[in-house]
Design brief:
This protein is α+β, with helices and mostly antiparallel strands and 360 residues long. It contains 11 helices and 13 strands. 35% of the residues lie in helices and 22% in strands. The longest helix is centred in the last third of the chain and has 34 residues.
Amino acid sequence: MKSYQEFLDYIKNNIKDYLPEKYSNALVDIHPCLKNNGRMLDGLSIQLKEEKATPIIYLNSFYSDYENGKSLSSILSSVAVARDHFAEPRLSTSIDSLQDYLHSPEAINHIYFQICGSDTNTDLLNNMPHKIEKDLALTYHLEVGNSYDSNYSIKITNDLMKMLDLTPEELHSLAMENTPRDYPPVFCDINTALDSLLGVPSEENYLGSAKEFKDTNEPSMYLLTNKTKTLGSAALFYPDVPERLAQMLHNDFYILPSSVHEMLIIPDSPDIKPESLFNMVDEVNTTCVDSNDYLATNVYHYDKTTGELTSYLEEKEQQLAQEKKPSILAKLQTAKDSVLDNKMNSTPKHSLGKDAAPEL
């Protein structure tokens, strides 16, 4: 049994034996990649000289297959198939290289944003322009091409932002314009969403209709995502989306961060307890959500009257702080009273009042 590092070295040194002849002079490299929620993965790149971009094949899961008994030759064959079936992303008919694309006027039209947990991605965010919303962070990405049903993108780091000659404010504005256009929001009831997952044709999107929810028999839970159903939780921060949801629901609503791909929307009701919703989110995150898809353990609330988005954890912290304040003030008052008592009970060496004068 090879160690993980020995496994990586073996893959790197032998992968060309399983690839077609055109890869004989390809550049093979393995490098660590920081992913969502602080996950560090080892990515294999096999780049042909004429390629504008190359895929990254993460080897961590392949090592798990190896530990479970899969042969090295079978793993190498799988990696080779994945690489050779990759279709190079189409950047533009008029653009010859990724560097040219980054410096072209076309690039800014393909800047979009997605969201991640701010507390679980501190290292990632240190090197990326971002905008904090509660305990979530909006990060910015550049789509560099597409192939068949896949899109390829790169993270916009601080250095790349400078290369694009953009400020954080300009970056955010462009992303807010481009993302809803290229990844339109989808809002549907949970039953429709489940039907879609089960392969039942269902295209109902309430955001694309004039539907309003007034009947008490309406569904009690809805799903908010985007048309691709990938990284769709960002739709919550699209311009006017919360307002449109509140208008349709005729109500305030709670938002449950189901994963990076979607948000669950629950209309407010006197019977709903935020603490119960929080416990539900916590349990689902612990037992069901893959670590790469994890977004946050929290519950948010949108007030249709004020347009304010609040956080359950933030309000809980504020509540605890308020509960602690009286005891602290009481201690300060006790200390102050003690000082005053000491002053009143002590006899000064000199009195400088109007009935006395300092001794000479």
